Amino acid sequence: MRSVEGVQSAVPLALAQADVRFPNGRFQSFQVIGVDDATLTGVPLMKDGATASVLRSPDAVIFDPGGTSGKLQTPLLKADQWPRGRPHLDVAMRPLIAGDELLINDTRVRVAGQSEALPRFPPRPLLFTTYSTAERILLPERRRLTFVLVTAAPGVDAHTLAARIETVTDLHARASDDFKADTVKWMIANSEDVGDAVTMLSIAVIVGFGVTGVMMFMFTTENLKYYARAQCHGYDHAIVADDDLRAGRTLCALGDGIGTRPLRSRRSNLCEL
After folding, report:
1. For the chain, how are helix, strand and coil distributed in percent, rounded to 5?
2. Contact 113, 60 (CB under 8 A)
3. Contact status, residue 112 vs residue 51, Cβ threshold 8 Å
4. What is the pLDDT of residues 146-158, one digit of tens each?
5. Would strands 7-21 and 147-152 be described as parallel, antiparallel, or unpaired?
6. Which residue has the higher pLDDT, 119 or 264?
7. In this model, does residue 271 exceed pLDDT 50?
8. Which residues partner with 74 through β-bridges?
9. For residue 122, is pLDDT > 60?
10. Fewer CB atoms inside 10 A, N or C side of the chain?
11. Confidence at residue 259, expressed as pLDDT on a 0 to 100 scale
């Protein structure tokens, strides 16, 4: 990859899933991200002024909530950490901090800090570490490498370089904006959450328009005598129609609000899963 003309740098990136054991015996699924040992490319900004260089310590990891809430908790008391026998699940808890320890596939790792990555969809906690550490703590796989992050040389177009890499290496290469677009398209085509959201939104709109139609029918039926009186006083059909449209728009907004409120509640519940 680095021998392709126009490539300034190329570093590995590994993505994997792992069930991480907390000190009280609870398990939590994480997405483990292994970054290049030398450059640490791919680690987001850190909290409390820390830097990605903390990963250079042995068995160091950086955690991120990844859009979740309340899932990264460890026992408050030392006596409840790494108990013998039954897990201590119903004890006082506190958030993870630097210096805490976790267990991944019988390998103990040390938390070196917390990052400020963008929330992922669907929400899931993230664990950043070096590529060599990821190879050691994760279960063996035939091919650990997931992506190669390539930086184009100055003056080289990213799309042109991606096409050149595909020609030379016979690997699929995408520029950053194309990769983002492909990810969105894949999520729309394959994610069940997107289908559920579209279905709930459609039901909400149907409920909204149904409420609007019923309310408009009741309003018109009960006020027919007032329409007749207005026309007797010289109001033409255009004025009456304009009044009806204004009332319809107001009722439509109210009806859609009634229909989409359960959708918003459902969406907030999905984000907590």
Report:
1. 45, 20, 35
2. no
3. no
4. 999 999 999 999 9
5. antiparallel
6. 119
7. no
8. 94
9. yes
10. C
11. 57
Number of C-beta neighbours around residue 119 at 10 A: 14
Residues 6+ apart with CB under 8 A from 170: none
What are 157-208's pLDDT values in tens digits? 999 999 999 999 999 999 999 999 998 888 888 877 777 888 888 887 787 7
How many Å apart are CA 3 and CA 238, to the nearest integer? 74
Closest CA to 25 of 96, 95, 73: 73
Give per-residue pLDDT as tens, 25-65.
899 999 999 999 999 999 999 988 889 999 999 999 999 99
H/E element holding 260? Answer: helix 237-271
Q: According to the model, what pLDDT value does residue 127 have?
A: 95
> Average pLDDT of the chain?
84
Per the structure block, which two tokens stand in for 49? 């002024």
SS (H, E, C) 183-252: HHHHHHHHCHHHHHHHHHHHHHHHHHHHHHHHHHHHHHHHCHHHHHHHHHCCCCHHHHHHHHHHHHHHHH
Spatial separation of the C-alpha atoms in residues 63 and 161, rounded to whole Å: 33
Residue 104: alpha-carbon gap to chain centroid: 23
